[in-house]
Structure of Lamin-like protein:
Amino acid sequence: MASKALLIAVIVAILAIGAPASAAYNYTVGDDAGWKLGVNYTQWAEGKDFRVGDKLVFKYDNTAHTVTKVNGSDFQQCVASNASNLLTSGSDEITLSAPGKKWYICSIADHCAKGMKLVITVSAPGAPAPAPVPWHAPPTPGTAAPNTRHCRPDTLHFCRR
């Protein structure tokens, strides 16, 4: 009887170790390009699973750009009506603290109108993973493979391969 209890304890321990941990994830906005003109941030955010507790990391030239958190209306109009949401360090981290849509723009001149803006949807920590990304055929020689480097450890099976 004692060996049966020990066996059950060992199995439970193995399952607990093998279970994926739900940890916060850091997303560098724009990947290696960072936060600058000429990057398609809509395309960059596509397929990413942003969750409460994750961080957005904005890396940029602070003599040429800013990061401003705005509301949906300001985002559509490319205006920053709340100066208290202005970030200017050149290396800003924003912790996603609540579920819902989040909007960010560069408030310098016409940068937002030229595409320097980002909208994401943040899910609650325990929310189900998003729908799987459709399977893509392997790349043909000379082309780049799909980017899987932003796949969350707990949702790898949903990432493109």
In short: The CA atoms of residues 63 and 90 lie 8 Å apart. Residues 15-21, 135-140, 143-149, 156-161 have pLDDT under 50 and may be disordered. The beta strands are 26-28, 55-59, 67-70, 86-87, 91-95, 100-105, 117-122.
